[in-house]
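[step 3/7] fold_predict: job queued, chain A
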Amino acid sequence: PEMANMLFGFIEASAVEESLKSIQIDSVQLVGPDLLDGKPMFVYTYKTQVDLGGAKNNGAGKIWIGALDGRAYKGESESDSIGSPGKTDRTLVTYEYDLPLNIQAPQ
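[step 4/7] structure written:
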């Protein structure tokens, strides 16, 4: 618990909620159905704008949502680079659920 508090103690729900207020998502459009690893998906595109204290960071994304469970399975995004002005940052995220988990007590 002490290590967890040290690593995550600075993240408070109110701080996370406040940071989410700076993100605007619009132009959400259904691209259509797709299969991802044999699972039926709905694919959407969207645009984002993040307020970084006066400066605006623009981006666009695509997300695969499970047609049967509503979970996000894959996301792709592209946005203006914060660290390298004039360049673009790209992100690819995949989500896996219900993975087998084996926890063993230390010997």
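[step 5/7] annotate
The mean pLDDT is 86.
The longest strand covers residues 23-36.
exit 0
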